Amino acid sequence: MFSAKITNFIQVTGCADETIADYFLKKNKLHLNNAIDDFYANGHVVVQESANAKVISQIFDKYTDNDSKDQIGIDGALSYFSDMGIDVENDVEALIAAYILKSPSTCIFNKTEFVSGWCNVSPEITSVADMARYLHHAKNNCDLMKKVHNFAFMYALDEGERKLEIDAAVALWKIIYKADFAHFEETGKHTTVTKFVIDFIVSGKSGKSQISRDEWEMSYDFFVIPLVELENYSESEAWPVLMDDFVDFLFGRV
């Protein structure tokens, strides 16, 4: 009976893709007339998404290895990022990709999340070059970058651990706030507290050997505070103790 409805749907709508017919029939609880009406109202969107998914799937397949057709491994991921002109170890674009594609671990991508991730970003992404352009511009999206920043903590955390080792945290911060460090190297001037805080932690003056999740997530908002505004810093604003200690150190109160 279901196959007959698929056939009828295709005959009436002229849509030759059985997966789309299947989608609309199941969406409308197998009511043929409702499914046909829904297709005429929304079919152009679904057809575009279906076509886009096929293109993204083909891109994914290019980077899989012989062991699994449903996963891109480390070698394939390195090739993928290289084709986009992205340095996995130094460019924040690699972290953005890991976030939107729900990478389970470093340089590992599963097909379902890869395809759905790129399809959700935009139906206009149909090539590796499109992906690279999106990732390049995405790093200027503050809302997205806050999510990427928070994602990075769990992404880099060793299995079974609840805190991030200082070396790992600093390495991630230097990737995420690469622009701040580049600005300092070019001008010798600081615009935010980012480099000051990281230097404070690396020097050992913070007394920290690990960073907690709360400290990590709060650091995103703290790091973007302009230096000139730190004079108005208040410990009553519920910042982690790490930030309180840094401000005390900066103003010579310890």
From TrEMBL:
Gene3D superfamilies assigned: Cullin, PONY binding domain, DNA helicase RuvA subunit, C-terminal domain, EF-hand
Pfam family name, one: Cullin_binding
InterPro entries recorded: DCN-prot, DCN1-like_PONY, PONY_dom
Domain of life: Eukaryota
Any one GO MF annotation of this record: cullin family protein binding
Domain spans labelled DCUN1: 51-251
Gene Ontology biological process terms from the UniProt entry: protein neddylation
PROSITE patterns in the record: DCUN1
GO cellular component: ubiquitin ligase complex
UniProt-listed PANTHER family: DCN1-LIKE PROTEIN 3, RP42 RELATED
Record function comment: Neddylation of cullins play an essential role in the regulation of SCF-type complexes activity.
Name of this chain's protein: Defective in cullin neddylation protein
